Structure formats: C-alpha cells, structure tokens
C-alpha cells in the first residue's frame, strides 16, 4: 500500500464494507446498551443504513450532510439517545474491524470519522 | 438521449444525470437519502427496459431478478420505465376463473385459479385478489410454475375478514375474479444447490413454503431442507399427508409439524415452530432461511436467525399482515 491510498482503499473498499455489515449489525443487536433502539425497525432497511454508515466511516464515497444526520436521528434523540449510546456504537464498530483483522491505526481513523458525526447525531 | 417514463410522464435524461436526479429535478417527489447507491432508500423498479448493472449492485438476488434498482446510481443509455416498489398500478389487472375450492382444514380454503393471461411468477410470491375494484387482499401462491397448471392459494378465514369471508362463503367454481401481481421477494433462487435451507411457517404461512420447497426440489436442490410448520393444535395443520409423502420421496427433505398447544400426539414436536427450529439447529451460518406467517413470529425469528449466524441476504421473509376491519 502506498502512502497515497485513501483510508477507504486501505481498509478494503466496498468488499470490506460488505464483510463488516452483518458482523457490525449483529454486535449492535446483541448490545444491551443500544439494542432497544432497534426493536421496531425493518431489519432489511436497517442493514442498508448500516452499510451506508460504514461506507462513510471507512472514508468511502457518500453524500451525507450534517443535516441528514440530524434528521435521521431526531426521533431517537427524542427517545433518549445520548453520548453513552454513541460511545457504544463506536466501540462495536472498533470490535467489528478488529475481528476482520484491520490495523489499530486504521481503526482509530474510522473511529475519528464516526466521532465527527456525534454532535449532529445528538442534535447539538 | 434516454427517456425516463414515470407515472405516465416522460422525462429526458440529461448527460451524466442519474435517474433519481432526472426525476427529482423536475419536481417528482421521491424518497432518497445517501445518493451513492448504498442506503437503498430510493429503491425503484424498472417496469420497462433494463436497469444498469451498477444500479443493481448490493441488492438482494430476488430483487435484482425482478428489475429493482437504485435510481441514484443509474445512468442508463436506453429508455427506462420506472415505478416505486409499492405502486400497484404498475401491474395490469388479470381476470382468472375459479377452477376449484376445497377446505384444507376448518379455516383454510384451497383456491385454484386459472389465469386468463400468462402470469410470470415464482413459487412463493403473492398476488392480490380483488373482491371488487378497491377491495383486494394479498395471498401467497402455493403453486409452482411449470409444475402446477393453475394458481393455488391457501386462504385462511379471518374473523370479520371481508375478502376471506367472501372467498369462503360466496365464491363458486366457474366464477371470474380479478387479480394483480405477482409481488414479493420470498422465493427460491437456484445457484447454490447444496446450501442448507430452513423454512418456518405458521398457519397458512405454509402456502408460499409449500411452493418454495417443491420448486427447490424440482430444480435439483441437494442440500438439507427443513420445514417447521406450526399451529396450536392438530386441526390447524394441513397438507401433512402430502408433506410426509414428499419426505419419503426426497431424502434431503425433513418435515417437522409443531404443535404449541397442550395436546401433542406422537410424531409431532411440542412447542412453537420457531423455538423448535432453533433448538434443533442452533447455528445457522451459511443457511438460507424462509419465514412466513404471523407478523410477530416473522419479526422475532428474523432477528434470531440473523443473530444465530444467517446472513441478511440469505433471510427471506413474508409477514402476513392482517388488514384492520373497517
């Protein structure tokens, strides 16, 4: 890998997202800190959203804006979504990448991108 | 320059413009989110023409085969006619003659229909059957194309069910009815003949599963196939003789009738179908799953199957939602 390769390419691009999405979603659904937020969702649609989220967090192509993030999570903020839940998601994300053998320095970069959405996700 | 046809209007596609942009820029209200072919919020169906390969990437096989695509990443060179996934008007009304009606058990009627026009469907999909123009209900197809001459439905009589009541009490052989379809993405796709398959159904949720199983077996599926059919008591089960016969004929097919009530005779598993299924087969890694019937059963089982290792793309589900009586 050359220095110029983007984070997305270094992680493995779309193939990495595809490999990660089921693992990540399983972790989220098994995580008692956050799984109540996913009780009533359509799993198929949710998996697609998780995929979009992972693509963005891996530094891949996306068109999400802060406003999209706010709109997409406002109903969850109303149900009590707070910092501890965002922490849990970022933790599950890291565990997913570790399971796939991604290097710690790349995981830190992914976590940083996910972290950058925190205030929008929590409507702050 | 390609033309995009949507809701009877034509839109000229500009150079380097996606189908989604083409429509939304001209004021068509469509749902969308990521605009990069990932989130699937903007999912549409091509009812004429062929969507580009790139616009079908990441979609479930069963959707791809039905020409579903993502307009946000679709840049076609040729004309496309498109519709939203739930646009019922995109399908023509087809008349059909009732060939026979017979009770499968006290509540479930086997309805055999002869379609007046060729209905291109896959076993396990559903059609909408209309009592009159604005009153229709979805029923799964239990028949298999090329194997059964006619369309077969298993219609359960619902308390105060307007359409099911009409089918049970008033419909007669020889009568003509109207239908629309097919729809649904719960069907067998050939390709991985050795894959293990688990099918769980409650009540008339057996209908699509009966079609899917016979379709898979006739297409030479060699992997183990487990059917768990659940009901409260013996009276709720049906087609047991046919399924046992199928089991005698195909070594890879297993039929496990499940009774959740108190009275469970020998030869039947005691408990709810999905509980018994997970007890018998706790790890579902690489399994293909089909779940049909009671919405709550489907919801819980889908999640459990996923957590037990089944990949999302391998879980096909059809929840039988009941319309609220007016």
From TrEMBL, chain B:
Cofactors named for this entry: [2Fe-2S] cluster
Listed CDD domains: fer2 (cd00207), FNR_N-term_Iron_sulfur_binding (cd06194)
GO MF annotation, one: oxidoreductase activity
Domain FAD-binding FR-type: 91-189
Domain 2Fe-2S ferredoxin-type, first and last residues per copy: 1-88
Official protein name in the record: Oxygenase
């Amino acid at each position: 890998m050359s220095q110029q390769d983007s984070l997305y390419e270094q992680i493995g691009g779309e193939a990495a997202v595809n490999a990660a999405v089921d693992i990540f979603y399983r972790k989220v659904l098994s995580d008692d800190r956050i799984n109540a937020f996913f009780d009533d969702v359509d799993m198929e649609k949710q998996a697609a959203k998780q995929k979009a989220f992972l693509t963005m967090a891996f530094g891949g192509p996306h068109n999400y804006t802060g406003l999209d993030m706010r709109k997409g999570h406002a109903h969850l903020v109303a149900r009590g979504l707070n910092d501890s839940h965002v922490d849990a998601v970022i933790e599950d994300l890291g565990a997913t990448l570790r399971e796939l053998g991604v290097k710690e320095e790349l995981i830190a970069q992914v976590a940083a991108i996910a972290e950058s959405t925190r205030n929008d996700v929590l409507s702050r | 320059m390609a033309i995009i046809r949507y809701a009877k209007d034509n839109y000229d596609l500009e150079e380097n413009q996606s189908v989604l942009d083409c429509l939304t820029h001209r004021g068509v209200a469509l749902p969308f989110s990521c605009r990069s072919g990932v989130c699937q919020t903007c999912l549409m169906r091509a009812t004429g023409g062929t969507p580009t390969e790139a616009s079908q990437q990441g979609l479930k096989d069963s959707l791809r085969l039905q020409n579903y695509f993502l307009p946000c990443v679709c840049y076609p060179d040729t004309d496309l006619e498109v519709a939203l996934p739930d646009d019922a008007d995109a399908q023509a009304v087809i008349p059909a003659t009732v060939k026979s009606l017979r009770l499968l058990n006290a509540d479930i009627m086997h309805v055999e229909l002869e379609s007046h026009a060729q209905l291109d469907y896959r076993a396990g999909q559903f059609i909408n059957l209309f009592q009159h123009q604005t009153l229709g209900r979805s029923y799964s197809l239990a028949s298999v194309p090329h194997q059964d001459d006619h369309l077969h439905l298993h219609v359960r009589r619902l308390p105060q069910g307007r359409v099911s009541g009409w089918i049970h009490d008033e419909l007669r052989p020889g009568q003509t009815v109207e239908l629309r379809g097919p729809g649904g993405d719960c069907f067998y796709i050939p390709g991985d003949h050795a894959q293990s398959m688990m099918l769980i159904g409650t009540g008339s949720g057996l209908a699509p599963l009966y079609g899917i199983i016979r379709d898979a077996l006739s297409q030479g599926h060699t992997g183990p196939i487990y059917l768990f059919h659940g009901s409260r008591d013996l009276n709720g089960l049906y087609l047991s003789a046919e399924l046992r016969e199928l089991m005698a004929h195909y070594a890879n097919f297993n039929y496990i009738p499940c009774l959740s009530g108190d009275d469970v005779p020998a030869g039947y598993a005691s408990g709810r179908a999905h509980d018994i299924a997970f007890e018998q087969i706790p790890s579902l890694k690489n399994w293909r799953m089909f779940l049909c019937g009671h919405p709550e059963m489907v919801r819980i089982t889908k999640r459990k199957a996923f957590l037990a290792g089944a990949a999302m793309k391998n879980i096909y589900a059809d929840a039988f939602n009941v319309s609220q009586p007016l």
